[in-house]
């Protein structure tokens, strides 16, 4: 870098949160992965780069870098442990996106910079001062006031959201002091967001006045006794040291060790294929097209990149340790078969559950984990010795290493064990861990026919010894995301019995408060960042399967996993009892692991010919729609291009209601098109229909055959237990829970899911379960009576609201009541109801008001639920499952309203999810007791529906058992005040059975 160059420094962490909070939630269509922040980040970065490279727009950078927070473990924490202590963990749906955003930055061919122990602001400050010293200009892309202390004649800031430059005049206008006094001002005012104390009672205006009068902070503090206002004088005199401490906290470091020198930050040409590959993997079709056009690339010829979702994607996410336990925040103990052993109880004396949890948290947090101490077990005798030690303590952590993230396709490469050695004190932090390699190869040459690495126990011998331990229920096996290991080992003939899952413990304790991946939990509870998988096996196209990883590296990585998992168990298990959540874990979570693993292993058959025919039909329909669209538009254009579509609708055709996005293009979102269609515009309706068809084709009819397993010839979805705040399961690879059931095309797709010869698919579906739960939890006599009498609930609601007799009721009246019934559950607004029903907002508001007047119990329930959530930070299902909403007190009105709606819905949706979980756990034992265990197999769970494959001769016997078990699943824990109803039907395909 030289004099006259221009360096852009992008506050990446600021971009992340702006992208996340400014945009509605977005998930990847193929698997439901949250990608809203990634999408917003990519779009913001693309616009910035596009403008930056356009010399006609303004400043053109010669160098550019994106700076991130490594984690919140910084020197400021050591200086002041309460620094940022009031920050909550990132939202659950944001956590998996941190790593993806870093991948995005690299895909943009930009330096992605973070430094352990320092915040992004310190790195920015160091680069800015270094560039300024050379004579270069600097633009910091951020609006963060903490960075305004860096502004000089050669260092500016740029608020990309407002398209506003921030120089010295703008700082003075905003804060009343020049940039060089921002440190002093912040030292006086403090910062509630970062928990910087400052001086109580001193706000920005007062601070600016004081600094103008006394010149600087040191002079002010030295002459504080001269201040005329008594209260102000007393506050400053009493808090001089707080002001000095605050100055240390707000002063940005300019001496951060930089891994990349300034010369390495040159703005390189965009690598179109690389960026398009990433965007296609994220399924960002609009931005993919824009990039392809700008880079003159054929996007259709570029394959999506292999972007792995790393374990503990939360690692290096901002403020991930905000939930670090204290004696108040981390209570707990345990009871039952999987409790701490009697010896541990004796060793811990008369500790209460809260005492034990606090002691465990203190013992394990920040304690050094020595990965050099791990052992590689290379002979059978040594392995037997470890298993004997596990038998002695009755507790062992277990983890597998494999060749694939899909347990149905993975080969076992090795496994790791961790043991708390002292049998008298299994709560002791003294833990040893080891790795047992089984099928490592000698290197890349194995791909050309090389051999096995030396010093490994033969697979059959190791499994014989391991099987004895894993199938012994008296030895508690602890794992993280056990379902994967359970299914994998089942394929090797081992049925794990007697287990705990730290991921599920965390989920029960803290759903909604953060990520439950091992790496994130390790940082939060142990203060330890585990080895990243990519550091062992590489990433991208150069990554290795684990069987090609050097055994020494594999040992450090794999044994650490088991070590960390056992430590997490020590910390989390006591909290379950202290927080009265043991029964949720032991009755709703842990028992579901083998149930889901069995379902995933079974899979379901599909008819490829049906899907192929449907793909052809959908393609033809889409093409026909395109011809109609061209005719209505009066010209041919790219129907999938929002820009071209917007220009047609609002530019050429001049349709009303057009609004432009931040990029300056017309908005053509689904809601915009639906609004235009509701007003009678034919072209938007055709576009909506075309989008639905093309989405079904790409997501299902084209994609599903690719998921057929090469050996079983069936499709095996994967279920996530800890993916939602409410307790609902999610399905991925492929996602079978989002196939539409209300459209003809969606129903046709379901016809491709078929029973094998001699069997039928049996669908058992809860009828209006969420409304029934609402009637149970809220005092609504009319709803309860209607359900008890088997009355059409929507017709009854319409009759109550509109005074129309149920007999002969017009379908439109019932439809409106149905929309309100279901809308109320999700906290629908007058605006939302108006859009749904195609009526004026005032009329929709009147409907909602009247609804609450007729059913006051619902309004009471909603208000009491919001009040409970504000007071406790969580809500509960009827069984006691907790869903946390830490942002419910947010100062951001839209964020607060979103959390309030979610909190209202969670007890209802969560209770329904708990009921079906209980049914899934109960059904197969009941069927086995009836002698039907081998003749009925549960295959899928889709929201409120269970799908079974049943021998044709067993249907008559199985159906009433399934229905009876599902309808009474809440018992004996809860006696429902309204009856649950299950509709069941058997047929040769899913659509006919539904």
Could you please describe the fold and organization of this structure?
There is one protein chain. With 994 residues, the chain is α/β, with parallel strands linked by helices. Helices cover 47% and strands 10% of the residues. The protein contains 39 helices and 22 strands. It is globular. Single-chain monomer with multiple functions. Its EC number is 2.7.7.7. It catalyses: DNA(n) + a 2'-deoxyribonucleoside 5'-triphosphate = DNA(n+1) + diphosphate. This is DNA polymerase I.
Q: List the uncertain runs.
A: 311-350, 423-427, 445-449
CATH architecture name of the largest domain:
2-Layer Sandwich
How much strand content do the residues show? Answer: 5-15%
Major sheet: 6 strands, mixed
Any idea what the radius of gyration is? 30 Å
> What name does CATH use for the topology of the largest domain?
Nucleotidyltransferase, domain 5
Which CATH top level class of the largest domain fits? Answer: Alpha Beta
Strands in their spatial order, largest beta sheet = 3-2-1-4-5-6
Classify the secondary structure makeup into a structural class: alpha/beta
Total number of domains: 4
How does the overall form come out from the CA principal axes? Answer: globular
Give me the number of helical elements: 39
The number of strands is 22
Domain Exonuclease: 394-578
Subunit structure: Single-chain monomer with multiple functions.
EC number: 2.7.7.7
Domain 3'-5' exonuclease: 374-577
């Amino acid at each position: 870098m030289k004099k006259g160059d221009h360096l852009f420094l992008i506050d990446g962490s600021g971009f992340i949160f702006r992208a996340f909070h400014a945009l509605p939630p977005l998930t990847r269509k193929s698997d439901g992965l949250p990608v809203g922040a990634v999408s917003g980040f990519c779009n913001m970065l693309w616009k910035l780069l596009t403008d930056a490279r356009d010399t006609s727009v303004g400043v053109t950078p010669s160098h550019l870098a994106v700076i991130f927070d490594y984690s919140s473990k910084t020197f400021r924490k050591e200086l002041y442990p309460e620094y940022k202590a009031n920050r909550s963990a990132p939202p659950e749906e944001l956590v998996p996106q941190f790593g993806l955003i870093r991948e995005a930055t690299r895909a943009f061919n930009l330096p992605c910079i973070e430094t352990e122990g320092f915040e992004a602001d310190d790195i920015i400050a160091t680069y800015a001062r270094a560039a300024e010293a050379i004579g270069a200009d600097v633009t910091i892309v951020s609006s963060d006031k903490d960075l305004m202390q860096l502004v000089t004649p050669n260092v500016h800031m740029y608020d990309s959201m407002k398209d506003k430059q921030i120089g010295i005049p703008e700082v003075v206008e905003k804060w009343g002091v020049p940039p060089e006094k921002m440190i002093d001002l912040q030292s006086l005012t403090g910062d509630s967001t970062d928990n910087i104390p400052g001086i109580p009672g001193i706000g920005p205006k007062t601070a600016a006045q004081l600094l103008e009068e006394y010149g600087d902070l040191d002079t002010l503090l030295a002459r504080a006794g001269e201040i005329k206002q008594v209260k102000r004088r007393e506050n400053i005199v009493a808090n001089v040291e707080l002001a000095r401490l605050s100055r240390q906290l707000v002063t940005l470091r300019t001496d951060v060790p930089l891994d990349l020198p300034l010369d390495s930050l040159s703005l390189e040409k965009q690598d179109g294929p690389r960026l398009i590959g990433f965007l296609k993997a994220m399924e960002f079709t609009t931005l993919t097209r824009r990039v392809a056009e700008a880079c003159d690339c054929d996007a259709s010829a570029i394959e999506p990149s292999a972007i792995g979702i790393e374990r503990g994607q939360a690692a290096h996410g901002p403020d991930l340790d905000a939930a670090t336990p204290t004696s108040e925040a981390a209570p707990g103990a345990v009871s039952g078969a999987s409790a701490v052993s009697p010896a541990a109880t004796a060793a811990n004396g008369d500790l209460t559950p809260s005492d034990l949890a606090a002691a465990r948290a203190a013992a394990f947090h920040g304690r050094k984990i020595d990965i050099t101490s791990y052992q590689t077990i290379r002979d059978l005798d040594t392995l037997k010795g470890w298993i004997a030690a596990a038998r002695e303590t009755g507790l062992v952590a277990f983890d597998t290493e494999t060749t694939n993230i899909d347990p149905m396709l993975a080969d076992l490469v090795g496994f790791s064990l961790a043991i708390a050695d002292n049998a008298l004190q299994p709560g002791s932090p003294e833990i040893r861990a080891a790795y047992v390699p089984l099928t490592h190869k000698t290197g890349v040459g194995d791909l050309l026919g090389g051999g096995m690495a030396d010093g490994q126990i033969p697979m059959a011998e190791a499994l014989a010894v391991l099987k004895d331990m894993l199938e012994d229920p008296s030895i508690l096996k602890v794992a993280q995301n056990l379902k994967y290991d359970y299914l994998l080992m089942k394929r090797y003939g081992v049925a794990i019995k007697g287990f705990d899952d730290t991921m599920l413990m965390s989920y029960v304790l803290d759903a909604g408060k953060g990520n439950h991946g091992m790496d994130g939990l390790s940082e939060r509870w142990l203060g330890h960042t585990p080895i990243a998988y990519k550091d062992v096996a590489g990433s991208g196209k150069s990554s290795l399967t684990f069987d090609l990883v050097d055994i020494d590296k594999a040992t450090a990585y794999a044994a650490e996993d088991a070590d960390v998992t056992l430590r997490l168990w020590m910390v989390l298990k006591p909290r379950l009892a202290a927080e009265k959540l043991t029964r949720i874990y032991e009755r709703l979570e842990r028992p579901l692991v083998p149930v889901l693993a069995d379902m995933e292993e079974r899979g379901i058959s599909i008819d490829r010919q049906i899907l192929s025919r449907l793909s052809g039909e959908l393609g033809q329909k889409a093409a026909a729609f395109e011809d109609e669209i061209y005719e209505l538009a009066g010209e041919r254009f790219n129907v999938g291009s929002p820009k071209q579509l917007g220009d047609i609708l609002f530019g050429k055709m001049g349709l009303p209601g057009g609004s432009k996005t931040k990029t300056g293009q017309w908005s053509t979102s689904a809601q915009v098109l639906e609004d235009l269609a509701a007003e009678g515009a034919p072209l938007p309706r055709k576009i909506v229909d075309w989008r639905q068809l093309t989405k079904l084709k790409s997501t299902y009819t084209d994609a599903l055959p690719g998921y057929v397993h090469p050996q079983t010839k069936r499709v095996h979805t994967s279920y996530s237990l800890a993916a939602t705040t409410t307790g609902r399961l999610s399905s991925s690879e492929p996602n079978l829970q989002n196939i539409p059931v209300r459209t003809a095309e969606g129903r046709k797709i379901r016809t491709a899911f078929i029973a094998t010869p001699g069997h039928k698919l049996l669908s058992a579906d809860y009828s209006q379960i969420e409304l029934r739960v609402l009637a149970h939890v809220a005092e609504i006599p009319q709803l309860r009576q209607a359900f008890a009498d088997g009355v059409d609930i929507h017709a009854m609601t319409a009759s109550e609201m509109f005074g129309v007799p149920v007999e002969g009721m017009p379908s439109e009246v019932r439809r409106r009541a149905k929309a309100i019934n279901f809308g109320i559950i999700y906290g629908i607004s007058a605006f939302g109801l108006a859009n749904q029903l195609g009526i004026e907002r005032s009329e929709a508001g009147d409907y909602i008001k009247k609804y609450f007047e007729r059913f006051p119990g619902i309004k009471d329930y909603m208000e009491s639920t919001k009040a409970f959530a504000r007071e406790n930070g969580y809500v509960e299902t009827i069984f006691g499952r907790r869903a946390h909403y830490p942002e419910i007190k947010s100062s951001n009105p839209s964020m607060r309203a979103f959390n309030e709606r979610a909190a209202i819905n969670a007890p209802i949706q969560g209770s329904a999810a708990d009921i079906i979980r209980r049914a899934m756990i109960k059904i197969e034992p009941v069927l086995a007791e009836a002698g039907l265990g081998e003749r009925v197999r549960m295959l899928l769970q889709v929201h409120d529906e269970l799908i079974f494959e049943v021998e044709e001769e067993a249907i008559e016997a199985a159906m009433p058992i399934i229905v009876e078990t599902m309808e009474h699943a809440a018992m004996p824990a809860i006696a429902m005040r309204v009856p649950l109803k299950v509709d069941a039907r058997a047929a040769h395909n899913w659509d006919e059975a539904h």
